[in-house]
Write a structure and sequence with these properties.
By secondary structure, the chain is α+β, with helices and mostly antiparallel strands. The chain contains ten helices and six strands, in the order E-E-E-H-E-E-E-H-H-H-H-H-H-H-H-H. It folds into two domains: 50 residues, Rubrerythrin, domain 2; 146 residues, Orthogonal Bundle (Citrate Synthase, domain 1), CATH 1.10.580.10. Strand 2 and strand 3 form a beta hairpin.
């Protein structure tokens, strides 16, 4: 059986464009070779009729309010999973079992510390600097502490280590960026807390008193992070446009 195609007629010439079928049964015309074959491009303001990419991670239908990660409805994940479980799902393609989650969680927890030199880096910025600009620069700076992370032909283990480091250190960098902007004491991560609790601790705790994260806020933040976990499509620049 021949593959389905769409036929486009331009200047009396007929061009065949492949039709692809998505995971939800939706169909699209693949125009990847359109310019090469015809010299034409398409105009689709706002990408109203254009799929931005093929994805095995996310399915998004904004008009119907559908968002799925790896086939799981976002409502189900937000209700029954925590952020690190969803992060594992996005990275490795499946939800972790108990042993896998414990190992993943331990690795993340053990990598939340950042080098002391990062403090000097942050202190160099004026308090009026925009936090997003400071954070973006701080994340880029991490690569200078781990030059091996940029080597070609890295092993799967080395790639996983870089992923774990980035997830772990992000909450520290965000919290320190906020604290430094306010010229308040920086709080180091505390391994007795979970991922979200640790983030709240570094954001709002003070050296002068005990701090216990509010469980209601913790639960809400887990859901918020899950909703924004994948930036491939649902939070992408293409979606905003």
């Amino acid at each position: 059986m021949s593959e389905e195609v769409a036929k486009l007629v331009l200047d009396g010439k007929t061009f065949e464009l492949p039709v692809v079928t998505g995971t939800e049964g939706e169909k699209a015309i693949d125009i990847t070779q359109l310019r090469a074959k015809t010299g034409y491009i398409t105009l689709d303001s706002g990408y109203k009729n254009t799929g931005s990419t093929k994805s095995a991670i996310t399915f998004l239908d904004g008009e119907k309010g559908i968002l799925r990660y790896r086939g799981y409805p976002i409502e189900q994940l937000a209700e029954n999973a925590n952020f690190l479980e969803v992060a594992y799902l996005l990275i490795y393609g499946k939800l972790p079992n108990k042993q896998e989650f414990e190992a993943f969680n331990k690795s993340i927890t053990n990598h939340t510390l950042v080098q002391e030199d990062i403090k000097h880096f942050l202190e160099a910025y004026p308090s009026k600097a925009h936090p997003m600009g400071v954070l973006a620069a701080a994340v880029s700076t991490l690569a200078t502490f781990y030059p091996e992370s940029q080597e070609e032909n890295r092993t799967t283990e080395a790639i996983n280590l870089t992923i774990h480091r980035l997830i772990a250190k992000m909450i520290t960098l965000v919290a320190w960026t906020k604290k430094n902007k306010m010229r308040m004491p920086l709080m180091y991560p505390n391994n007795k807390f979970g991922y979200v609790e640790n983030f709240l601790y570094m954001m709002f705790a003070l050296p002068t008193e005990e701090y216990t994260p509010n469980p209601v806020v913790v639960k809400a933040l887990h859901k918020l992070l899950i909703l924004h976990a994948d930036h491939e499509q649902n939070c992408s620049a293409s979606t905003v446009r």
